């Protein structure tokens, strides 16, 4: 099975394996890294072949094909999401965060508010505050184990005069929600009412699990005030060899962003990113289908394991993304004690506190990894919890693992 043959390919993920970062965050380097969201798997064969073709030429002259990239993405969206996009409405950007950073600077003034739905991908706050804008948070509500939009809170926050932009993350990182069409439309209606532009980060659009359907903001008709932003990075595991793209049917936003990226010379990729992207979107379907099947099997295994063997740890429904959002509040650990527990169990997760101050009892796990690694991690977690239970459940002060209280 192609997704298993590269066991521990995580070693190739330079950042995920950074010894200094692991030591700094988890207090040890002796952990399997399930934190940063890149894949252990080898990329799809058509992408490999394209990259080999380019490298074997041993020539790196000026070369790009931005139109080819936009055409490949447009065809992909039609094929995979039944969504008709116009190839003329794309703007290339270096990456999704870079694109969001540029959009925020163009669509808002210093001091303006930019809304995010928390818990939220931790880079959003950074990208907003580093531009001198205010981070405005609208918390998602956990209702019977599912995250739901609090529309009253959203409306109240968006109605504030200084809030000009909302970043919508769909599918949502870290909680894995994939918005229903009605939810997307409701959010859009509220944003329009208060004249707020939505930047819809759809980087995880292709990682949708069975029973769910991706609903792009671009599908919901009245999309004059929105910009969608995406990239092949997550879909095809090409984080270090891809660019991002902005798509908008708002002529003013389009002109602004195209002129900006052109004037900054940011509007094209290099030969490797360009042709890898074209190969991915034109020929990556079957690899992605197999990946989704593989992820689904892991999700099913984890669901069963938690319900049968570790019911004190729960997982919110994984509708999309290859990250799962685990709730450890049933264990009674302190937030720091949880991080120590993960380290003791030998696996590195992204602590929930990265995504929201109130989410310290949660953690995000990247499951784009060989099943055997995931299964071993959960088995070790269970053993570690069991062996610590006496100390922790009594909650009688700091344990050797830095437990609760
Ligand atoms: C929602 C979301 N947006 C953006 C990014 C980063 O995208 P890029 O590397 O293209 O800036 C990530 C990466 O994890 C993400 O999850």
Can you describe what's shown?
Helices cover 41% and strands 15% of the residues. Helix 3 runs parallel beside helix 10 and helix 4 packs parallel to helix 5. The protein has two domains: 9-43 and 286-386, Aspartate Aminotransferase, domain 1 (Alpha-Beta Complex); 61-283, 3-Layer(aba) Sandwich (Aspartate Aminotransferase, domain 2), CATH 3.40.640. Mean pLDDT is 91; it is low at 391-405. It contains 13 helices and 15 strands. Helix 5 (122-129) links the parallel strand 3 (113-118) and strand 4. By secondary structure, the chain is an alpha/beta fold. The chain has a seven-stranded mixed β-sheet, with helices on both faces. The chain has a four-stranded antiparallel β-sheet with strand order 11-12-15-14, with helices on one face. The chain has helices at 19-26, 45-57, 66-81, 96-107, 122-129, 151-158, 181-193, 233-236, 251-263, 271-283, 285-309, 335-345, 371-394; strands spanning 32-33, 90-93, 113-118, 134-139, 141-143, 146-148, 163-169, 197-201, 226-230, 244-247, 314-315, 323-327, 347-348, 350-351, 362-366. Pyridoxal-5'-phosphate (PLP) binds at residues 37, 95-97, 121, 169, 173, 201, 203, 231, 233, 244.
């Amino acid at each position: 099975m192609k997704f298993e043959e590269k066991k521990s390919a995580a070693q190739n993920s330079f950042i995920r394996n950074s010894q200094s970062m692991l030591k700094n965050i988890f207090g040890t380097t002796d952990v399997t890294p399930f934190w940063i969201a890149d894949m252990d798997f080898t990329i799809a064969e058509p992408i490999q072949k394209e990259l080999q073709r380019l490298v074997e030429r041993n020539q790196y002259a000026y070369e790009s094909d931005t139109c080819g990239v936009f055409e490949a993405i447009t065809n992909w969206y039609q094929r995979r999401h039944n969504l008709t996009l116009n190839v003329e409405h794309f703007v290339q950007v270096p990456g999704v965060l870079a694109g969001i950073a540029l959009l925020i600077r163009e669509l808002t003034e210093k001091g303006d508010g930019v809304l995010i739905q928390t818990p939220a991908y931790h880079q959003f706050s950074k990208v907003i505050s580093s531009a001198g804008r205010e981070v405005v948070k609208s918390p998602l509500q956990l209702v019977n184990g599912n995250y739901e939009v609090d529309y009253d809170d959203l409306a109240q926050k968006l109605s504030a005069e200084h809030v000009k932009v909302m970043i919508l993350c769909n599918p949502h990182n870290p909680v894995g929600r994939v918005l229903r069409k009605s939810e997307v439309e409701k959010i859009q209606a509220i944003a329009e009412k208060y004249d707020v532009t939505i930047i819809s980060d759809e980087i995880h659009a292709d990682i949708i699990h069975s029973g769910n359907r991706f609903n792009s903001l671009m599908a919901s008709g009245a999309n004059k005030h929105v910009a969608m932003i995406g990239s092949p990075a997550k879909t095809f595991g090409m984080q270090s060899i891809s660019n991002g793209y902005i798509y908008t049917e708002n002529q003013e936003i389009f002109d602004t962003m195209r002129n900006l990226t052109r004037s900054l010379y940011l509007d094209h990729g290099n030969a490797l990113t360009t042709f890898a992207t074209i190969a991915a979107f034109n020929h990556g379907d079957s690899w992605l289908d197999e990946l989704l099947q593989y992820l689904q099997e892991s999700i099913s295994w984890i669901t069963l394991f938690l319900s049968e063997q570790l019911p004190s740890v729960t997982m919110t429904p994984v509708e999309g993304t290859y990250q799962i959002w685990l709730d450890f509040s049933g264990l009674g650990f302190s937030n720091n004690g949880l991080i120590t527990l993960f380290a003791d169990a030998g696996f590195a997760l992204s602590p929930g506190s990265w995504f929201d101050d109130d989410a310290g009892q949660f953690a995000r796990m990247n499951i784009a990894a060989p099943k055997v690694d995931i299964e071993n991690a959960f088995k070790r977690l269970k053993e570690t919890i069991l062996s610590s239970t006496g100390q922790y459940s009594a909650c009688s002060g700091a344990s050797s693992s830095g437990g609760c209280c």
